[in-house]
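Illustration: Flippase-like domain-containing protein.
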Amino acid sequence: MGESETITGDPVQDPAVAPTPPARPWRARLVKAVRILAALGIVYFIVATTVDQWGAVETTFRKLSWPTLVASLVAAVASLWATMMAWRAMVGNLDHRLRVRDAAPIMLVGALGKYLPGTVWAYVVQMELGRRAGVSRAKVFIGSVVVSGLGVACGLILTAPGFGIAFDGADASKHDTFGAIAVWSAVILFPLAIVCCYPPLLTWLVNRAMRLLRRAPLDRPIGWRPVLESLAWIAAGYLAAGLHVWLLVRSDLPGFDGFMGSVFAMALALSISTFVIVAPSGLGAREFLMAVALAGLGMSWPSAWAITLVSRLLFTLADVAAAGVSAAVGLRRIRRSAS
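Result:
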């Protein structure tokens, strides 16, 4: 299926009229400078906090066994896989149903672009990989953005019962003002996110965005089935991500309550850090929010922060492993079809 054509119909420009000058280069440089400063600020925050809490960080690393770390890594990979399946369900409604072996390289390999500052890079890589698999760039982009939005909505649904705990965690942290702002952001976004899951409104929002981007609207409206199927896979992904965290904190948060608390911590962290687009993969914001949630559940701030660093390392390894396996499978299929 080819790309959607750009909407044309602008009046022909008079040759006597000078063309509109391009945007001033200083604006681009200013935006780039702001992003660099923001990224440096986040890195400084992570390093300074880690150095300050290094005793707890070192103790936490020593306390975790290799079987625990491996099991937590597997749970992280399962979470990424579920997110890929949610994306596949949505793109199947927008364009055509993809086989899992075709969808996995597009989503999982393309997701490595999130480690570059600015969320746009993940979408760029996914669009190019999707085009090679026969899906238009526009549909790949829409599918990724819609699933990201549904991920925020699902995360806030899982977070909502623990808003009070999150506020307690913000007070327990050394950055209570920032923590309170983050939790209030979740509270404010919660009803908006729920409303945007309504398929007719979601279809209207997507078509409005496509119009602003000078692209053709959707061929057909987004129905309940892809929305519910995507939400089901996203919820499974959050449960797997919560298991990933719980395996690391079960000595401090045992039992089913500890597991549900871990799901809450990851849901808060992933849903709100999505909006921190200047940070590669929500770096810093995700760790801070997860530590706030874990502190609200009763962990000390140093221990909670140490766990977030371990989680970040394992999720990065999971991203690379999932992308590597998907790319290898895709390359093998291409070689078979060529022979």
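Reading the tokens back as a structure: The longest helix spans residues 301-338.
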